[in-house]
């Protein structure tokens, strides 16, 4: 799952569409739960909450859906192909269910929220449909299904943050973990389905976030990634009893500082920053703490101001460039990655060329790149015609991808010949003779195993060689 954050993936193969199976755990003797996640890290993080809720009910988790009593798919709606993948997967479960009629099949997450009870009509094998704010109701919904009913809960909430639920870190490497700091989104970018599937933005209690970071550190974790659709608008004010002095509001810069102070040995990352909201205060806190990683994911979407305007991103080309300049000024050497959409409604060739020139301006370390996919119910679907032919969208996407390939290689090459502090995350995918981990700027580094160091240790690695996605080196003392 961590690979989703740093491997070059393009086109249809994106971070919004990986499946991760959970490793076995639990109190045993109970029914078995299999859960598979698609979409962004928020969904993966939610699956850990779902598992936690059901383990408390006596469930145990399994990696093998064939032995499961309950199969859940935590779904994503961000692009049409994300939904198609889920439909395909459901077809495969149809076969499993035909062999095991008592099997409960549930659809969770964004697609559940988008389609609601319609899901039950469209996919006959589905027994239960649960939106992202209704997971506490799962035990009750499962009971209903066991009594022979179908069950749906897609109520969105203005308060739910699952702050008190400790996620079970089931598929973890024991070193890095995600902490959800807020839910929902209030931005209404015109192309985006998230405000509809995730509801209103709300921030989680800062104390519970810091406690979760501390607990993870105590359990041996050395890196946390704070998650939200727009982390820069994090804002939490604790309730106090009547007559008491109100407590100060915690903004994202304050929260970053609080988490950074858990331990200098705990690395902090975060995602996603919104160009309209990222403040100099946040950049200064990043510069002040060595353990807050010098890496910012700052989705641009388009390099053209007119397109940004109809996307409802609420910044323009100049604003975005100024924010990039501020990052470069305040945090020299900070890596920047982005998301790009090609072929948004009415985008001209000249406007597309401005996306390419923006890429030249920033020279992103990394990018997630997509052809525009119209989503039902979004502002863009209502207001604009999806008028760019598929082959034009794809050709523009190829141009963006090709350019990014050059920039990724150029950025990675700059790490060669330098020594990097790397947190060992595990063995490399290719060989157990090599360790892998990331440097401060989120570049993946691969280097030979050295028996003196183990997973979870920090080591100094000299970069000797690279591809566009990986830095290859050796440990130096
Ligand atoms: N909250 C984040 C993004 C979440 S969705 C942000 O504001 O940046 C992740 C990415 O998916 C978006 O940044 C966008 O590039 C892409 N995306 C969202 N909706 C899309 C659509 N309808 N078609 C193509 N790509 C889309
Ligand atoms: Fe979607 Fe925009 Fe919210 Fe990101 S900020 S989740 S792109 S509406
Ligand atoms: Fe997908 Fe929902 Fe995340 S639509 S990208 S899983 S918030």
From TrEMBL:
Ranges where the TRAM domain occurs: 413-477
Domain Radical SAM core: 171-410
Binding residues annotated for [4Fe-4S] cluster 2, in chain numbering: 185, 189, 192
Cofactors demanded by this protein: [4Fe-4S] cluster
SUPFAM superfamilies found in the cross-reference section: Radical SAM enzymes
Binding site residues for [4Fe-4S] cluster 1: 40, 76, 110
EC number in record: 2.8.4.3
CDD domains, per the entry: Radical_SAM
Root EC class: transferase
Family of the protein in this entry: Belongs to the methylthiotransferase family. MiaB subfamily.
Function in brief: Catalyzes the methylthiolation of N6-(dimethylallyl)adenosine (i(6)A), leading to the formation of 2-methylthio-N6-(dimethylallyl)adenosine (ms(2)i(6)A) at position 37 in tRNAs that read codons beginning with uridine.
Subunit organization: Monomer.
Protein name (database record): tRNA-2-methylthio-N(6)-dimethylallyladenosine synthase
Native organism taxonomy: Bacteria, Pseudomonadati, Bacteroidota, Sphingobacteriia, Sphingobacteriales
Gene coding for it: miaB
């Amino acid at each position: 799952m961590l690979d989703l954050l740093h491997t070059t993936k393009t086109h249809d193969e994106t971070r919004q569409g990986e499946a991760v199976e959970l490793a076995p755990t639990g109190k045993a003797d109970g029914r078995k739960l299999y859960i598979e996640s698609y979409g962004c890290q928020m969904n993966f993080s939610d699956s850990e909450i779902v598992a936690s809720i059901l383990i408390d009910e006596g469930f145990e988790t399994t990696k093998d859906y064939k032995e499961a009593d309950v199969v859940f798919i935590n779904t994503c709606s961000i692009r049409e192909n994300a939904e198609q993948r889920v439909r395909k997967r459901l077809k495969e479960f149809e076969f499993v269910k035909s062999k095991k009629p008592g099997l409960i099949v549930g659809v969770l997450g964004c697609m559940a929220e988008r389609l609601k009870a319609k899901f039950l009509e469209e996919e006959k094998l589905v027994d239960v449909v649960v939106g992202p704010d209704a997971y506490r109701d799962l035990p009750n919904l499962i009971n209903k299904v066991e009594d022979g009913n179908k069950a749906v809960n897609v109520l969105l909430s203005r308060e739910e943050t699952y702050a008190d639920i400790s996620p079970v870190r089931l598929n973890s490497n024991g070193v890095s973990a995600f902490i959800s700091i807020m839910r929902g989104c209030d931005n209404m970018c015109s192309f985006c389905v998230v405000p509809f599937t995730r509801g209103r933005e709300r921030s989680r209690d800062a104390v519970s976030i810091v406690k979760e970071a501390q607990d993870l550190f105590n359990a041996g974790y050395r890196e946390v990634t704070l998650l939200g659709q727009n982390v820069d608008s994090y804002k939490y004010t604790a309730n106090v009893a009547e007559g008491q002095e109100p407590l100060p509001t915690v903004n994202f810069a304050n929260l970053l500082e609080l988490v950074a102070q858990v331990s200098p040995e705990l690395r902090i990352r975060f995602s996603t920053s919104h160009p309209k909201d990222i403040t100099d205060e946040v950049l200064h806190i990043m510069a002040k703490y060595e353990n807050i990683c010098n890496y910012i994911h700052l989705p641009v979407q388009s390099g053209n101001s007119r397109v940004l305007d109809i996307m409802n991103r609420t910044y323009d080309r100049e604003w975005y460039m100024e924010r990039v300049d501020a990052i470069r000024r305040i945090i020299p050497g900070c890596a920047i990655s982005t998301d790009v959409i090609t072929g948004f409604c009415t985008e001209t060739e000249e406007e597309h060329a401005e996306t390419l020139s923006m890429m030249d301006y920033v020279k992103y370390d990394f990018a997630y790149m997509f052809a525009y996919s119209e989503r039902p119910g979004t502002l863009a679907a209502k207001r604009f015609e999806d008028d760019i032919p598929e082959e034009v969208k794809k050709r523009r996407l190829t141009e963006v991808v090709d350019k990014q390939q050059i920039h990724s290689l150029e950025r990675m090459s700059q790490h060669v010949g330098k020594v990097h502090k790397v947190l060992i995350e595990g063995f490399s995918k290719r060989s157990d003779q090599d360790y892998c981990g990331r440097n401060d700027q989120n570049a993946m580094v691969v280097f030979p195993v050295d028996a003196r160091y183990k997973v979870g240790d920090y080591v100094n690695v000299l970069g000797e060689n690279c591809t566009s996605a990986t830095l290859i080196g050796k440990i130096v003392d």
